[in-house]
């Protein structure tokens, strides 16, 4: 078939095209929040691999448990991936320490409570506790959030390496860069961030940093409340106390 890479002999790597493991990973990466179930044609297209390759790799991934088929025959992410992902030390150890404190924070505030870590140039949500009827937010566990446009993201960005910060500033206009630098400086000085967001619903986020035993910023915790429903600063003390308790649980000996 035109455009298909040559088929490799068993046990040998294809002479051209991506390695087999890269093609398999591209199939898994084809899924996202808006594409949780994919037919073969869409899976092949989104992964950028020929249909015959998609058929072969999808069958192998199903065998292993990384993919499953739904009632309509579409491919969906398999539970085996969840099982493996749950062992990631940056999320599992942190979540295990943080969860009792997050539950206390949720009980006190009755609002959305988020726990996130930085993964490259994005924030990755590792826990979310929500109350029925709380304001709408488009965040899910395992989902990614922009660093510059969320409360937990601003906190995580405030502790990011200089090279990542410079990359971010390079993408902004001069005025936007000045505004972001001020926000990050305020976050470092105050030890927390208060951030307002308009979409999908107007919300305010109160976020604070979590540090490990070396004092390194490793995560952020936040409460997300409806904009205008309450003064965000009313949540500042309890969010700060939660972040400090989790940090001590991570081995931090003094703030």
Automatic annotation (TrEMBL):
<dbReference type="InterPro" id="IPR050707">
    <property type="entry name" value="HTH_MetabolicPath_Reg"/>
</dbReference>
<dbReference type="InterPro" id="IPR036388">
    <property type="entry name" value="WH-like_DNA-bd_sf"/>
</dbReference>
<dbReference type="InterPro" id="IPR014757">
    <property type="entry name" value="Tscrpt_reg_IclR_C"/>
</dbReference>
<keyword id="KW-0238">DNA-binding</keyword>
<keyword id="KW-0804">Transcription</keyword>
<protein>
    <submittedName>
        <fullName>Transcriptional regulator</fullName>
    </submittedName>
</protein>
<dbReference type="Pfam" id="PF09339">
    <property type="entry name" value="HTH_IclR"/>
</dbReference>
<dbReference type="InterPro" id="IPR005471">
    <property type="entry name" value="Tscrpt_reg_IclR_N"/>
</dbReference>
<feature type="domain" description="IclR-ED">
    <location>
        <begin position="80"/>
        <end position="252"/>
    </location>
</feature>
<feature type="domain" description="HTH iclR-type">
    <location>
        <begin position="18"/>
        <end position="79"/>
    </location>
</feature>
<keyword id="KW-0805">Transcription regulation</keyword>
<dbReference type="InterPro" id="IPR029016">
    <property type="entry name" value="GAF-like_dom_sf"/>
</dbReference>
<dbReference type="Pfam" id="PF01614">
    <property type="entry name" value="IclR_C"/>
</dbReference>
<dbReference type="InterPro" id="IPR036390">
    <property type="entry name" value="WH_DNA-bd_sf"/>
</dbReference>
């Amino acid at each position: 078939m035109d455009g298909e890479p040559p088929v490799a002999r068993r046990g040998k790597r294809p002479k051209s095209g991506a390695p087999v493991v890269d093609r398999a990973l591209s199939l898994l990466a084809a899924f996202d929040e808006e594409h949780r179930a994919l037919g073969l044609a869409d899976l092949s297209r989104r992964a950028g691999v020929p249909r015959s390759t998609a058929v072969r790799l999808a069958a192998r991934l199903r065998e292993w448990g990384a993919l499953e088929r739904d009632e309509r025959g579409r491919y969906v992410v398999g539970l085996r991936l969840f099982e493996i992902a749950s062992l990631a030390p940056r999320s599992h150890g942190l979540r295990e320490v943080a969860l009792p404190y997050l539950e206390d924070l949720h009980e006190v505030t009755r609002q959305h409570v988020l726990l996130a870590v930085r993964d490259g140039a994005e924030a990755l949500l590792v826990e979310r506790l929500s109350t029925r009827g709380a304001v709408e937010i488009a965040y899910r566990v395992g989902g990614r959030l922009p660093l510059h446009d969320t409360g937990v993201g601003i906190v995580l960005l405030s502790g990011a390496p200089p090279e990542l910060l410079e990359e971010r500033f390079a993408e902004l206009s001069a005025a936007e860069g000045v505004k972001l630098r001020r926000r990050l400086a305020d976050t470092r000085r105050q030890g927390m961030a208060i951030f307002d967001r308009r979409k999908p619903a107007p919300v305010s986020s109160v976020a604070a940093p979590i540090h490990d035993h070396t004092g390194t910023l490793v995560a952020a915790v936040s409460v997300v409340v409806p904009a205008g429903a309450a003064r965000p600063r009313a949540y500042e003390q309890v969010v700060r106390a939660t972040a400090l308790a989790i940090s001590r649980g991570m081995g931090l000996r003094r703030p």
